[in-house]
Amino acid sequence: MTKFLVSLVLIMLLSFAACLYLPWWSIALVACIIAILIPQKPLPSFTTGFLALFILWSAFALLVSIGNHHLLAQKMSVVMFKAANPFLLVFVSGLIGALVAGFAALTGSYARKLPRRETVR
Amino acid sequence: MRLVPFLLSAGITVLLILAFNTSLVLPAPLGKLLSPQHGVWQNADPADEDYNASLVLPGLKGKTEVYFDDRLVPHVFAEYDEDAFFVQGYLHARFRLWQMDFQTRVAAGRLSEVLGDKNGLKDILNRVDRYFRRLGLPYAAERSLKLIEADSATKMFCDSYTAGVNAYIKSLTESSMPLEYKLLGFQPEPWSNGKTALFLKFMSFDLAGYEKDFEYTAARNAFTKELFDQLYPDYQGFVDPVVPKGTVFDQPGIVPVKPADADSIYFNYKKAGNALPGEPLKPDRENGSNNWAVGPAKSKSGHPILCNDPHLGLNLPSLWYEIQLQTPRFNVYGASFPCSPGVAIGFNDSCAFGFTNAGRDVRDYYAIRFKDDTRKQYWFNGSWKDTELRIERFKVKNKPDVLDTVAYTVFGPVLFDKNYTGGRVTNGESYAVRWKAHDPSNEVKVFYLLNRARNYNDYLTAIKNFHTPGQNCIFAAKNGDIALWAQGEFPAKWKRQGEFVMPGYDSSYMWQGMIPQAENPHQLNPERGFVSSANQYPADSSYPYYMGGSFAPYRGLYINQRLSAMQQVTLQDMMKLQTDNYNVLAGSVLPHMLKAVDESKLLEGQKQYWNTLKSWSGYNNPQEEGPTIFDILFDSLHAVVYEDELAGVEHVPAPYESVLAEGIVQDSAYRFFDDIRTPRKETLQDDVMEALRRAMPVLEKARTSNSLKWYQFKDTHINHLLALPSFSRQHINTGGGTYSVNATRDDHGPSWRMIVHLSPEIEAYGVYPGGQNGDPGSMYYDNFIGTWQQGRYYRLWFMKKQEAQSNRIKWKMTFDRG
Questions:
Q1: Which residues in chain A have their CB less than 8 angstroms from residue B45's CB?
Q2: Which of B8-17, B112-121, B235-244, B579-588 has the least mean pLDDT?
Q3: Distance between CA atoms of B388 and B412, rounded to whole angstroms?
Q4: Chain B: which residues have CB within 8 Å of chain A?
Q5: What does each C-alpha distance from B104 to B107, B111, B135, B365, B469 come to in angstroms?
Q6: What is the mean pLDDT of residues B614-623?
């Protein structure tokens, strides 16, 4: 549980920091590296990455949107989904980050196990 | 074996990133767009956005302070003129960069680079990009740029502006990029003086690119001279011209000579010949405006009042950006064009200035006979003459480049030939276009000089630089002077020259010279106490030059009547007039239409509409049904009256509404009332009854779809430049129309309303339908629309430096040299 929480928080913090300087997909690098450094089983790893970015990106988007009185999210959700729903845009933002970070963390989790199997053989 | 799951999950991760970072899988790169730190969320400005900034930038000469008021209008106080224009460029880019990029890409024929060759159903490459290149818009801009840069004042003006725009572009990051760049997936490129020149040429296209030469040629081929002249008169006597009837004109400095064989080969009416459809891409015919100024004797205060409202296509972000610029050498406030330095319509410490479109025809076509398909030579004055071939390269998004070769002749570029018909069915013949905007001119100098003009002479010096588009330039000064010049460099044409396609093998059909500037119609402090223009003829038929072109008679007629009747004019009177919804066309024809009809012959369903029409106030007020019924009925009547003459003839233009109106008002036996296909002799009554019969389904449809009220039927909307509905404002509840001073149509109308009282302390009001910030995610994107729609104004704050502590100031930016 501690590993889970520490990973979660680290992925969130480092993803935020990385995105200040790097492209958006740097979240995948962060999630993958954390999953290697703090080993968990594949499913918890995936969940950590998924949740971390879902929370980070949807909360970030939601805060921005509230500050903007949902003006842009309203307009953009019509452009992208033909539905005037700012929360849909918030949700999809979170989901995209979540999917990428989740699979990246999963990859990290499996990567961790690769070298050991090779030495055994 | 963990390798398989590892490779599988790694593969999925990479695929997800690819899918979310490109448009290969999904229609948009969702990851890039929705990353809260990179994508569109970064464009969702907080409602309480902090615009304060302290900037140190290379290229500045001194210190500049910019105070933003509560409407986000910047008041720029610079130590040096150069810095004022630098900062203006920076601010235009800060708030309108994508719009500037987009507008100049249209002008440059480079839209396919960012939208692709097709956008939805629209063939961008062929209908837009190739069209503007072949019309020679970039060619014209290149030629004018040389002139702009050869003049030290305008070079400084544009250089400073360009440096400011580029300083902002350099500061951009992926996150701070304007929203539309993210959506379309491209990056801004550096600004240049050439782009400013392109924008000004695009305005020339918009304002001085209208003609119907192909349509009139088709009509000439089909009709006798007598019929042609009645359907398409070149002058209408009921008009009240810009300079009043009876004005005495000097002997003309140039008398154009009609070619010897014109009667047989040019005025060859009703001789079967080719009939081609008109231009595939036309500027709006109603690109026009109102302006007027009342002198001291007519105004209540004893000081002049100047009013101007330019009618243009309405878009978001708006064509206009409000700004005040002050340096030790000048102090100006008004509406500026993002893309150009200076203020275009506004006022300074001493005077106010504005424009309406002159509407003269400065674009003609010549039929070219090439020697062969290489287009290297064409027949001219009895021998083969070389063309100049200009190769146009089109970069196309996700596609290989496209090349197009355009042949240039003595007239100008060959716009249409076997390689390019503009999507029309033609016979592959070639037509060169002679367009006044191709001639080098330095219009940006008008703004430069007007912004610092002190008096009438300064104004006159400034506007002489206006060559194309020709404009009715209005002026009023604190000293009491009011003036108006129908200014431009206009070709001196023989009567109806260029109305039809001209032969391109004979130099005697070329333009023979330009009307000397001093002979342009003008007025300074006229006895009637006001000057005015609203796109009507500049002068009456005694003007010694052929005026040809497209003119709008009604607004001017009404404005002049009202101004003549007014005394002790106040600012409120002027606001009322500028937003007046009276339908001048209806006021002139409706009484005749109502009187002509025997009401007992009306059918049951028709009566309710007829009664509404009878009780209508004559004003295009938003909530009334009368304007809608009149609009539909008059359209229908127009068809009934002329369709028999136009039947079976292809591509001919419809006569103007004012032609029908003149027939109705002045001639009870107007020949066109008769349907020549029947043995009977029809009258106005028959035609109105028939028009009403045909209008019924349209009226019923409007009623059942709940759009009979004028604002519903007219359906004014202000579209985003990409026409994304959620970035646009739709269904705006507002009145007016084509024949009202408040010329608000569906997507077109008063794009900036301004009223300036030239009292010792200038008092000015203005509004435009948009907002200062071009970001669709900003509170300041469209916040002026409500005020505009209700016909209200903002008081324009001509701020003084010592008011820097005022609580109207919300933010401050300082610029220092680096």
A1: 68, 72
A2: B112-121
A3: 10
A4: 1-3, 5-6, 9-10, 12-13, 16-17, 20-21, 28, 30-41, 43-48, 174, 179, 183, 724-727, 776-779
A5: 5, 9, 15, 25, 17
A6: 97
**pLDDT value of position A118:** 46
Could you give the C-alpha distances from B157 to B81, B86, B332, B569, B815, in angstroms and in order? 8, 9, 15, 38, 18
Question: Could you tell me if B767 and B792 are in contact, meaning their C-beta atoms sit under 8 angstroms apart?
Answer: yes
Mean pLDDT value across chain B: 95
Q: Which chain A residues are Cβ-neighbours of B40 within 8 angstroms? A: 72, 76
Say if the Cβ atoms of A76 and B726 lie within 8 Å: yes
Give the DSSP H or E segment for A56. helix A42-67
Q: Is the pLDDT of residue B426 over 90?
A: no
State the DSSP H helix or E strand holding residue B477, giving kind and residue range, or none if neither.
strand B471-477
Domain coordinates in residue numbering, chain A: 2-120
User: What local confidence, expressed as pLDDT, does residue A114 receive?
Assistant: 63
With a cut of 90, say whether residue B273 has pLDDT above it. Answer: no
Tell me the nearest-neighbour CA distance from A26 into chain B, angstroms: 10
Q: Which two tokens stand for residue B67?
A: 């105070």
Residue B13, Cα to own-chain centre: how many angstroms?
Answer: 51
Q: Cβ contacts (< 8 Å) between B12 and chain A: which residues?
A: 103
pLDDT of residue A121: 38
The answer to whether A20 contacts chain B (CB < 8 Å) is yes
pLDDT digits (tens, 9 = 90+) for B227-240: 999 999 999 999 99
Cβ pair A24:B39 closer than 8 A: yes
Contact A76, B28 (CB under 8 A): no
Determine whether the interchain pair A103/B174 forms a contact, defined as Cβ–Cβ distance below 8 Å: no
Q: What is the ipTM of this complex?
A: 0.94
Q: What percent of chain B has pLDDT over 90?
A: 92
Q: Count CB-CB contacts under 10 A for residue A35.
A: 28
**Which among A28, A68, A113 is the nearest to B46, CB-wise?**
A68
- Fold classification of B584-714 is 1.10.1400
Cα–Cα distance for residue pair B245/B256, rounded to 1 Å:
23
| Span B564-576, average pLDDT | 97
Half-sphere CA count of B674, side-chain side, radius 13 A: 11
Q: Which amino acid is at A121?
A: R
Nearest to B43 among A42, A72, A80 (CB): A72
3-state SS of B351-372 is: EEEEEEECCECCEEEEEECECC
Asked if residues A98 and A53 have their Cβ atoms less than 8 Å apart, the reply is yes
What is the maximum alpha-carbon separation in chain A? 60
For B34, the closest of A92, A104, A113 (CB atoms) is A92
Query: Residue B584: which of B642, B531, B661 has the closest Cα?
Result: B661
Contact: B725, A78; criterion CB under 8 Å: yes
B contact test, residue of A103, A113, A120, A121 with most B CBs within 10 A = A103
Q: Check A75 against B777: CB less than 8 A apart.
A: yes
Q: Which amino acid is at A84?
A: A
CA–CA distances in Å: residue B766 to residues B174, B275, B301, B358: 36, 47, 20, 23
Cβ B572 vs Cβ B303: under 8 Å: no
What is residue A117's predicted lDDT score, i.e. its pLDDT? 47
Mean pLDDT score, B25-46: 92
Amino acid at B776: P
Q: How far apart are CA A35 and CA A30, in angstroms?
A: 9
State phi, psi for B366 to the nearest 5 degrees.
Answer: -125, 130
Q: Where are the beta strands (DSSP E) in B598-732?
A: 716-720, 729-732
Query: What parts of chain A have a pLDDT lower than 50?
Result: 117-121
Give the minimum alpha-carbon distance from B24 to chain A in angstroms, rounded to a whole number: 16
Residues in chain B closer than 8 A to A67 (CB atoms): 44, 46-48
Q: What is the DSSP string of B315-335?
A: EES-S-EEEEEEETTEEEEEE
pTM: 0.95
